[in-house]
Structures are given as structure tokens and as C-alpha cells.
Design a protein that fits this description.
Elements lengths: L17 E10 L2 H8 L8 H17 L2 E4 L9 E7 L7 H12 L5 E10 L7 H6 L2 H15 L5 E3 L1
Parallel strand pairs: 4-5
Antiparallel strand pairs: 1-3, 1-4, 2-3
Helix pairs in contact: 2-3
């Protein structure tokens, strides 16, 4: 888990950070999948459309801030969410349900949930979504590591 020292200088404009959970979801081998199945990557396809709905439902249930990724026009391939005052383990059942639903389409998904400080505001860019806080950076590092090992897993840290 990130240390307090790693968060020094993270706050901008007087906005504080609170403890919570960062959740990152990413469809596995998405480019290959859309090519194999003839799906569009520019409009919602069965996998990205489903993930959009699942992310929205999850965010509503847990009062999560959707930092990045929910895209109704193109479909959601990846998403970053922050949930204040919630432990990652509390999310396990819902994250497993998301994975099961996506897997029913024959598509893999890697999900990471990490406890740490959360900023609770949407990112202006993908880069900001992935790197703005040490907790997000750790979540992305764990996501990439899991995807290199085959993906289609849930990591709770």
C-alpha cells in the first residue's frame, strides 16, 4: 500500500484526499477480440456496451466517482473508479459478478481494487486517470502485471 510520504504534494487547489478504493477494469485482448468477431471498436459492441452498463450500476451502488473510461458513445473498454471509505474486500462479490457477466460473452476482463487515498474527481485525460495519485499508479501497475500473466482475473490489494 502507498505510504503517506508518497502522497505529499498530491493535493491541488486545497482539495483533499480520503481513504478509499481505486478500481480499474480493462477488457483483455480487446483488439484481437473485435477483429475475430467483426465487432466495431468505434460504436458499442456486445462487450463494451455490457461493460458500460455494469460500470454504471457498480458506480451507483457504491457511490463511486467514475474517474475515467465510461463511454456510452463508443462503449467502455476500460474504466477507473474511486470509492471513498470502502475497503476493496467489500467489493469482491460485485467485481466477481462483473467478471462473470463479461465472461459469458467469451471475453476476458482484468479487475484490480486497491486501498489507498482517492481524489474523487474525474480525470481530464487517460494519463491523469492512471497517474494522478500513488494509489492509481499502483492499481495500474498491478493491472499490467496481471494482464501479462494472462489476465481474466480479479486482484484485491
Amino acid at each position: 500500500m502507498p505510504t503517506r510520504k508518497q502522497y505529499e504534494g498530491v493535493e491541488e487547489g486545497g482539495e483533499g484526499l480520503v481513504w478509499g478504493t481505486v478500481v480499474v477494469l480493462d477488457l483483455d485482448r480487446f483488439e484481437e477480440t473485435i477483429e475475430e468477431r467483426g465487432w466495431s471498436q468505434y460504436t458499442p459492441n456486445p462487450a463494451t456496451g455490457l461493460l458500460s452498463h455494469l460500470v454504471e450500476q457498480f458506480a451507483r451502488k457504491w457511490s463511486a466517482v467514475i474517474v475515467y473510461g465510461l463511454d456510452w458513445e463508443r462503449g467502455t473498454e476500460e474504466a477507473v473508479l474511486e470509492i471513498p471509505l470502502v475497503e476493496p474486500e467489500e467489493l469482491r462479490e460485485d467485481l466477481e459478478r462483473i467478471k462473470e457477466e463479461v465472461n459469458k460473452l467469451g471475453v476476458g476482463i482484468t479487475i484490480v481494487a486497491v486501498r489507498g487515498y482517492v481524489g474523487l474527481k474525474p480525470a481530464k485525460s487517460r494519463r491523469e486517470a492512471y497517474t494522478a495519485t500513488p494509489t492509481r499508479r499502483l492499481a495500474i501497475k498491478l493491472l499490467r502485471r496481471a494482464k501479462r500473466r494472462g489476465g481474466n482475473t480479479i486482484i484485491i490489494a
